[in-house]
Predict the structure.
Amino acid sequence: MTSSEAASQRIPPFMSLGSARSSTSSQPKVVVQAGRTKASNVSRETKDPAVGALDNDFDTGSPIASQLVSETKRREKLLGRSLPSPIRTRVMTVANQKGGVGKTTTTVNIAAALASAGLNVLVIDIDPQGNASTALGIPHHAEIDSIYDVLINDIPMAEVVAECPDIDRLYCVPATIHLAGAEIELVSLVAREQRLRRAIDAYVKHRDQNNQERLDFIFIDCPPSLGLLTVNAFCAANEVMIPIQCEYYALEGLSQLLKNIEMIQKHLNSDLVMSTILLTMYDGRTNLAAHVAADVREHFPKQVLQAMIPRSVRISEAPSYQQTVMTYDPSSTGALSYLEAAAELAERPST
């Protein structure tokens, strides 16, 4: 074996995203039928190792067995459930100025779960990092047209919308590195806070004029800041979804975010409502996570979803293969939790 061959064998999968999709052809795919989600082509490696243990008269009183029983019951509740289409398109901004709380992960996985259930979903990536575009398998190198060109150069959104290769009815407006300078360029433009809203309205009309199905959900993935890009997202949306990490620091910036939402409501978008809070990275083994979850539910009883997203290796691994967890490992606990959150979101009345 040559030194170059040995080096190539040491490169982990996430270091070579260009070839990751072809190398994961055996990864499980989501199959949804009338609200039912099942895994096809699931290898032994992607199954919970406890499944085999249960087949061998595993002690059903153990923590792993109890978890499997609980997950089985949760999956049974989702079987046969069809998600309702909203009366009108729901435009939701997913925002939190704190980084690392699961904004992008929540955006792409809930969008994927809703699209897998037969709803038409669009994800607009306005984060210069372009992580949502990566997770959905959408090219977003500097040479392609993106949301930057929509906001700054007035290119119609219809020209930059791309279809997700893994899930039908899921679309994405990608972000490129050019978006990093958009905050400065937007300052001198007319109606700078309303440019995204006008672009979305024009795209919705374009779909209607071309006899395309109406979009049921539009999710806007924001950067971890409260700059002009996030203001544009607030002005374009009817609802705000806030992912909150189940740790103390995640609560510190929440009051400032709520103040900014109130300011947007007063001066720019009176229709904006903070409708949804999703608890993420929940670790049931710690008292802190339980206390944070209880505090958030106490202060926002109507907004917090009952579904909680646990810490999950599968959720973290999926973006390195340019996939959501819904297609990377639909049998995982993380995929189940996002399915529950998506179903609860869809069944809530729109604001």
In short: The beta strands are 29-33, 36-40, 90-94, 121-125, 162-163, 170-173, 217-221, 239-245, 273-282, 304-310.
